[in-house]
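Last lecture ended with a question: if I hand you only a sequence, what can you say about the shape of the protein? Today we answer it with a concrete record. The protein is C-C motif chemokine receptor 3. Below, first the input exactly as provided, then the predicted structure, then a couple of comments.
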Amino acid sequence: MALYGETQPVVESFGTTPYEYEWAPPCEKISIKELGSRFLPPLYSLVFIIGLLGNTVVVVILTKYRRLRIMTNIYLLNLAISDLLFLFTVPFWIHYIGSNEWAFGHHMCKLLSGFYYLALYSEIFFIILLTIDRYLAIVHAVFALRTRTVTFAVITSIITWGLAGLAAFPEFVFHEYQHDYGESDCRPLYPEGEEDRWKRFHALRMNIFGLVLPFLIMAFCYSGIIKTLLRCPNKKKYKAIRLIFIIMVVFFIFWTPYNLVLLLSAFHTMFLGNSCEQSKHLDQATQVTEVIAYTHCCVNPIIYAFVGERFRKHLRVFYHRHVAIYLGKYIPFLPGEKMERTSSVSPSTGEQEISVAF
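The predicted structure:
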């Protein structure tokens, strides 16, 4: 989602499009800026509400009922925390886009921009870890019994957050509060003479970590999983294979358009020249693909947690015991007491792994 000034052709907003092109004369993008300030805040408000609800439910269920004794659950918890960290920054960007002014000062600009990218990279990395975890559990089950421990999960999670922090470190360094042309912005300020190099590095980094690396790992792991499932007499194997394809397709539908537009924007002058109209089309494409990409934080709880039978069981128990029982006092037709009795089976029986794929 980009916020555009009247004389500066491209000004970053939402920490996602750190590109400025020097034009002669300046390329006016007032209409794109006004369009974004009108339509993007409601869309991102919807993403914020749905994502906050879904990921909060995941955190509550995992910590309340599963006690984090399983490696998969630890990765799921970290994935939800990554999404919540991203969602924490969203209200600030909504205000920025709606008012066309950055009102939170220099330090908040650096902090929120860094957290924004830290959340994006950690989300992708934990999705990769969940894929590898699933691969080990199915394809190398004997080896997985020794390696898929809580200690290993905690260590790999700490390392993953460290790698995400390294990937996001340039955003903590280069994002600055800037007041130019009568407007206050939060955008990257790269070293003079190295702007193009850093812009292209940013785009390549996002494409490598956000598209190429996940694709290669998912292709390898899921192909091995499918081969193993096809040899297995389990009646649910076709449902599992279908879900595998859904996970892969959803991920790449959400992320591929944005990464490709980001790459094209970075190398815009090399491929398309200094065309104002083409730059405007790229800005509009960036706005659309960003909306698609960042709604992925709303989908993560569904495809990685809610599809598990045991997770849904714990969710029903939580609802009956902590929501329906109280709503039944105020809503006569909601049988709260009956729900509580039918859900009296303790969810803590057995510490089997939440099935995130089957």
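Comments.
1. The chain has twelve helices and four strands.
2. The two ends are 35 Å apart (CA to CA).
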